[in-house]
């Protein structure tokens, strides 16, 4: 059987600016640990067999972190998103699938090591239901 694995390459991360998506330049890594559901304990004094009981709780969309080669700009789209608060962000995978999330930018840091490339990372807290769609 032939694998259908997809190479981690040619993946775009873009920020919605109110009229269109603006691609973030030179992204080198995207980390999104995905979904997490709370397990709410509902054990009571007469629960059967002395085992704890749980019900499904709320789902958390997690945090998405992007790393990039940082190119200083007076019109930095990530800084604008951080200043704006909540925004809409889109990942376009090279297999033709889009992931659109509403998120709150929670951090943005730049590194300027002597004799090395400038780099940056930004973290976004997903809010609400992520939307997956074919492009």
Give an overview of the whole structure.
With 135 residues, this protein is mainly beta. It has a single domain, classed as Irregular (Factor Xa Inhibitor). 6% of the residues lie in helices and 49% in strands. It is built from 1 helix and 10 strands. Strands 1, 2, 3, 6, 7, 8, 9 and 10 form an 8-stranded antiparallel beta sheet that branches. The longest helix is centred in the middle third of the chain and has 8 residues, at 77-84. It starts with 11 loop residues before the first strand and ends with a strand. The mean pLDDT is 94.
The total tally of domains equals 1
First-residue to last-residue Cα separation: 27 Å
Q: Which residues sit in consecutive blocks of at least 5 with pLDDT less than 50? A: none
Overall pLDDT confidence: 94
Which CATH architecture is right?
Irregular
Structural class, please? mainly beta
The shape is: elongated
Helix % is under 10%
Q: Beta-sheet strand percentage? A: over 45%
Can you summarize the main beta sheet? 8 strands, antiparallel
CATH fold label? Factor Xa Inhibitor
Number of β-strand runs: 10
What would CATH call the class?
A: Few Secondary Structures
Helix segment tally: 1
